[in-house]
Amino acid sequence: MAQTNSLPTDERRFTHLRRHPRVRISAPFPCSFILVGLNRRSAVKQGDVGIVYDVSTKGARMMTEAVISPGDRIEISLRLPHHTSPTVIEQAIVRWGRAQTYGIEFDGLSLVADSRLQKYMARASKHVAVPAR
What we know:
Elements: H1 9-14, E1 22-35, H2 40-43, E2 48-56, E3 59-63, E4 73-78, E5 87-98, E6 101-106, H3 111-126
Antiparallel strand pairs: 1-2, 1-4, 2-3, 3-6, 4-5, 5-6
């Protein structure tokens, strides 16, 4: 399981309530994304970038300087470590944002994306250091 003692108090308090396990990433990895839907694809520059700090099969927490808002639909391309090609999630929704950090919910994954995320999470969870007591 991921470290919980290094989390802010409010986040640590609710970690056990998660329905889907997430992996805290020891070395954040890059992603790129575009807004989609209702002509948004052509209205914004292609390839805004961000950094992913944790991920599950249902979503991710990322930081970006791009201007996005809760409710925006995005297509996101994750550059998972140790993978030769990006994992593309074609439908995701921005659920919350605070100080250039955003919670992204994946809105249905392809079988390929789901499989790649499962494998990444299994590998990453084996390498999470447990704090000494």
